[in-house]
Amino acid sequence: MDYKKLNEKELKEKLTKIEYDVTQNAHTEMPFSSIYDNFYEEGIYVDITSGEPLFSSKDKFNAGCGWPSFSNPIDENNIKTKDDFSHGLNRTEVKSNIGNAHLGHVFEDGPLTLGGLRYCINGASLKFIKKEDLAKEGYEQYLELFEI
Fold first, then answer.
1. Is 120 a catalytic residue?
2. What is the annotated signal peptide range for this record (predicted)?
């Protein structure tokens, strides 16, 4: 698939206010407010602004923090990180690579059995694609994630 960043007008037309504020202005949604916080269907999560595949339900876990949490991305090339010193904190921001959308932050307090990382991601930055819809939506190469 071809992933591209939408222009400002397209983003404002496509996204809700919270989706826009999170992805474009690095806001944070309220904890426990995302439909994806306590959501465990099989599928993948993509950048709501560009469609880039970001995380798999196979790597999702309940961190109890109020935001969807993942142990690692589907493909490291689809995300980028940068130091974030906002709010008097020292954190690592996670953004989508092509869409440049703010996704959340990554912390080193995840389960050691899953690699030790916790990608704490705003649900407002994500779109979920069900496993059974992957081929129809153009993400058929990710079906292999769910084969055992």
1. yes
2. none
What percent of the chain has a predicted confidence (pLDDT) above 70? 99
CA 83 – CA 94 distance, rounded (Å) = 9
Please give the pLDDT value at position 1: 76
- Compute the distance between CA of residue 35 and CA of residue 29 in angstroms, rounded to an integer: 11
What does pTM read for this prediction?
0.94
Give me the catalytic one of 46, 120, 121, 124.
120
CA 2 remoteness from chain centre: 18
Give the span between the Cα atoms of 125 and 147, in whole angstroms: 27
Tell me the per-residue pLDDT of 16-51, one tens digit each, with 9 for 90 and over: 999 999 999 999 999 999 999 999 999 999 999 999
- The dihedral built from the CA positions of residue 80, 100, 117 and 70, taken in this order, carries a sign that is negative
Q: Give residues with Cβ within 8 angstroms of 68, minimum separation 6.
A: 34, 36, 37, 39, 45, 55, 60, 120, 121, 122, 123, 126
pLDDT of residue 10: 96
Distance CA 75, CA 67 (A): 21
